[in-house]
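pinned: reference chain
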Amino acid sequence: MILWLLYGCLTLLTAPLALYFILLWTRNHKQRPASPIQQSMEAVSIIVPCYNEEQHLDRKVQEILAECEASNITDFEILLISDGSTDQTNLSILQLQSAQQVRGLLLSTRMGKANAVNLGLAQASHDWVILSDVRQTIKTGAFRQLLAHFSDTTVGAVSAKLNHRDASWVRRCVNYLKVLENKTGSTVGVYGALYAIKKSCFVPIPTNTILDDLLISLQVLLGGKRVVFEPLAVVVDIEIEPFYGRERTLRLINGLWQLWFVHAKTILALPPRHVVYLVIQKYYKFFFPPLLVAATCLVFWEMGFNSLTTQIVGLAALVAGGAACLFGYPKLRFAFRILRFSILSIIHRKRHNTVLWSKLK
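pinned: its C-alpha cells
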C-alpha cells in the first residue's frame, strides 16, 4: 500500500512536466514570421489604466508618443484611465489631454484595474488596441513588433516580453518556455505590462478579477484565436526580488485561486494542450511541494524511521534546508520566500478577495 502511494505521488510529480515537454517538442513547428507593418496600417488605441501614478505618468505618455513615431503609427489615440487616484494623477491627465491625441477618463471611485480595462476597451475608437501599464519602460520598436502579428487573422492577442533590470534568470527561463509554447501555435497568457489585442476579440471581464491579463488571454483562446508571444517587443520592469514582494506575490497567487474556483468552466473549455500549459505555468508550483514532502515521508515510512539511511537523509535535508533559508545563495532564498508566500496564500482566509492594485515604486 505504501509503495502504491509513493508511486502515485511520483507520478503526479513527474507526469504533468513530462506531458508539458512532450507537447512542446512534438507539436513544435516553424512559426510564421510576422508581416511588417505598412504605412497604411489601421488606427490604434493605446489604453493606460493608472492609479496614483503622478511620478511616472508624464514620462509614460512621452514614451508612448515616441514609440508611435518610431513605429510609424500616425493614426492613434491614448486613453488615460485614472481609477479613483488620490494624488495628482488626475491633474496630470487634464494637462496631458490638451494634446489632440490624448483622452482622459477620471473615475471618482477606485474599482480596480479590471474595471479600468473594461472601460478603456469600451471607449476605444479602433479595433487594434495596445494596453500598457505605467511603471515599466518600453523598448523602442515594441509597438511595431506587436501589431505586425495582426496581419495573421488567426491572432487575437500578442504579448510583449517582460525583462527585469537585473536580467533575472527566473524571468529568462519563463520567457524561454513561452517561446517554446509559441512555436506550438499559441501560448496561454500575456504580460499585463504591455500587450496588444483586437477589440473584436475582447470579452468584458468581472470587475473583481485579480489577474485581468490572464483571464483576457484565456477568453481570446476560447474564442478560437491565438495568443502569441513576441520576444522582440520588450518591456523592462524593476528588479525581480522587489517585483515579487509579499503583497504582489500574494495578489498573484490569490488571483490564480480565484481563476481556478470562479472560472473553472473557462479553463476546462480550452483545448487540452492549453490546459496543460496553464497548469504547468501557474499551478504546478502549488502541488509540487506537498507531493514532494509526501513522497519523502512515504520513502521514510517504507524504509523505516529507525534505518540509518533515512536518519542520515532526513538530517541532511533539514540542515541543507535551514542553511539555504538562512545563509544560502540569494536566488535560492528567493525561491524559498516565494514558496512560503504560496503556502500563506493557500491558508489565508481572504485568499479569494480582490486586490485592486499592486503598487510598486
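why pinned: The longest helix spans residues 272-303. The first strand starts at residue 44 and ends at 50.
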